[in-house]
Design goal:
single chain, about 625 residues, alpha/beta, Rossmann fold, 5 domains, six-stranded mixed sheet, 21 strands, about 40% helix
Length: about 625
């Protein structure tokens, strides 16, 4: 007998301010579903997820969740005002004795449950919300941008948890790699309608483009038919008026159909304008160091960045990526060593904290109040790459409508705030872009456009990001900071870094760069559009790693062998915590359901641990020959 759906939406209608958000949406979520929810910024993804969670009531239609089915929701901006600490919030609603679930999630997500709410950053609050959802273990999880503010290590942990869970889930995320690795079906929210495809996020763009192409062809045929019928109406209606009133009415119906078609939102009209060419040398760091008290952020590190390089900085939160970026751009002085900036630099900065935006001011005031964009004597125009533009016209380039121009920034979604910050950044000429987490909250289409712009940009790019796919598409050199003060340079993007690291093909950490070494930002750089013969070294392809790692292991096996000790350590910690819980002699009589669940979890973890240890022994024997 087939199980009832976990959640069902039928004929959902929702309108905000006169504009329809959803127009007759139907959706069924079954047990085991792993769904990617995608759509443009502002298309209503978060609103749809809140409706699925029962937090938003539709104007019409029905939401059905069978009795006994639990639905959990992780929102982007959780309200923690009623709680003293992050742990108090994360454990709220859990049965006594199940707090260990939050402790386990906090360890993987890397936040301290004892942190006072008033002292917690936005990222820590979101990690606490994610830990709360993971601890609740509902049958259906709704996750709205769960990877934002997570470093790559925490993203890997979350990916593993979701891969192993038996719960169904719906994901909103800008992280392509995360969506590709986890989803089996795709929900596409577009112009008030919802399409479903029974394949994961891989191939979404191809599906989307095919749908749009079919729409364009149908619209073109309809336009030709209207044109032909209109010509007949003008030339022949008087002679055949009585016999052809039906045809006249059909023409009116065609015109009504065409008028009713909803044009899809175009891509943002973003553009980067290169300023005067900088000198060949952009930044040279020699043996720079940094520490905050006893905490070492950077051991002696040297790097030479030349014009046209794309340098990505990766590593865990708190490893010092932003600190290193600030030192390389002259905003912060190193404790020792020297920084030399090149000549004729015009720098534009994208700040991950979005501190450049005043949340209480309108979009209009955030642009006209920027001294670099102000047009003397005009309050309705901004200077965009040397030319005056009307504020509303420029905002429309970034997909904001006229009504939003006077709205406060705090009313915008995360993706819209990112687009507004890009509007400020792209208004000025530059030859050095400093991008600190630019991909957070952006939709797939805007990410594609930003990637293309960076590919054609003749200047230099310094990038901090946890988006593995974006790094792969943009970076020619990756600086890995792993939290111990070491910074190591690898040619290429994220996948190149992982392959070289797994194969032992890395430079000595914090080594001074030299011609022909991978620590030199020019060596092995990937060719890209717009190079124009700028650098002979930049045209050389990165060296291909060997097909086998030392010891007869494949790269996948080598990486797995390196990862298994961490997996085993985590399983042992979970088994120990479950053992402490089950050591309570009164647990069985006091809470038999919890005792049964903990016993099942303990058996499962022990089985998984035994398999992991067996796998480690097999790979270790293979590695030793």
């Amino acid at each position: 007998m087939a199980r009832a759906p976990l959640l069902q939406l039928s004929s959902i209608q929702l309108t905000f301010g006169g504009d329809p958000v959803f127009d007759g949406i139907d959706l069924t979520v079954q047990a085991g579903d792993r769904l990617a929810l995608v759509g443009r910024n502002g298309s209503g993804k978060s609103t749809l997820m809140k409706l699925m969670a029962g937090l938003v009531e539709p104007d019409a239609g029905a939401r059905v969740v069978p009795a006994g089915v639990s639905v959990g929701y992780m929102e982007q901006d959780p309200d923690l005002s009623a709680f003293a600490t992050l742990g108090d919030y994360a454990t709220h609603g859990l049965a006594p004795g199940e707090e260990y679930r939050v402790a386990m999630a906090a360890e993987g997500l890397k936040f301290d449950p004892a942190t006072p709410v008033e002292a917690a950053s936005g990222g820590e609050r979101r990690r606490a919300a994610l830990a709360r959802l993971m601890a609740e273990a509902p049958e259906l999880m709704l996750l709205d941008e769960p990877t934002n503010h997570l470093d790559i290590e925490a993203i890997d942990w979350l990916e593993e948890q979701l891969r192993e869970t038996r719960a169904a889930f719906v994901l909103i995320s800008h992280d392509r790699a995360f969506l590709r690795n986890l989803t089996r079906s795709t929900l596409w929210l577009d112009r008030g309608g919802l399409r479903r495809r029974e394949l994961g996020f891989e191939g979404f763009e191809e599906w989307r483009d095919k749908v749009w192409d079919e729409e364009d062809q149908a619209r073109h045929k309809l336009d030709r038919k209207i044109k032909a019928e209109a010509r007949w109406a003008v030339e022949g209606i008087s002679a055949r008026r009585k016999r052809n009133q039906g045809r006249v009415r059909a023409l009116a119906a065609l015109r009504e159909e065409r008028a009713g078609q909803i044009r899809r939102q175009g891509a943002a009209a973003m553009a980067l304008e290169e300023g005067p060419k900088s000198g060949k040398l952009v930044v040279e760091a020699v043996d720079i160091t940094k520490a905050f008290g006893a905490r070492v952020i950077l051991r002696p590190f040297s790097l030479k960045v030349q014009r046209g390089d794309r340098v990505a900085f990766v590593g865990p939160n708190g490893a010092g990526k932003t600190t290193l970026l600030k030192m390389l751009t002259g905003e912060m002085a190193p404790d020792s060593g020297t920084i030399r900036l090149g000549t004729n630099l015009e720098m534009a900065v994208f700040d991950q904290t979005r501190a450049q935006l005043d949340p209480d001011a309108s979009l209009w005031d955030n642009l006209t109040g920027d001294p670099t964009m102000r047009v003397s004597g005009r309050s309705d125009q901004v200077m965009v790459r040397g030319q005056p533009r009307h504020v509303v016209g420029y905002l429309k380039d970034f997909l904001f409508d006229e009504a939003q121009a006077r709205a406060p920034v705090r009313s915008l979604s995360g993706g819209e705030k990112a687009r507004l910050l890009l509007a400020r950044l792209m208004a000025r000429e530059s030859n050095l872009l400093v991008l600190d987490e630019p991909t957070n909250d952006l939709d797939v289409e805007t990410l594609d456009l930003l990637q293309d712009l960076l590919g054609d940009y003749d200047g230099t790019v310094l990038l901090v990001s946890h988006d593995r796919d974006f790094i792969d598409r943009v970076a020619s050199l990756t600086i890995a900071m792993e939290g111990d003060g070491r910074a190591t340079a690898y040619a290429g993007g994220w996948s190149d870094y992982r392959a070289q690291r797994a194969g032992g093909m890395q430079e000595a950490p914090n080594a001074a760069p030299g011609p022909g070494t991978k620590a030199d930002a020019k060596a092995g750089a990937k060719p890209r559009a717009g190079d124009g013969g700028r650098s002979e070294a930049a045209q050389k392809p990165a060296p291909k790693p060997a097909t086998k790692a030392p010891g007869g292991l494949s790269f996948t096996e080598k990486h797995r062998l390196e990862a298994l000790p961490g997996v085993i350590e985590r399983l042992e910690a979970e088994i120990a915590k479950l053992g402490e819980l089950l050591a309570d002699p009164e647990l069985f009589t006091r809470e038999p359901v919890k005792f049964r669940k903990a016993t099942e979890m303990l058996t499962e973890r022990q089985t998984t641990l035994a398999a992991a240890e067996e796998e480690w022994m097999t790979l270790e024997e293979k590695a030793s020959g």
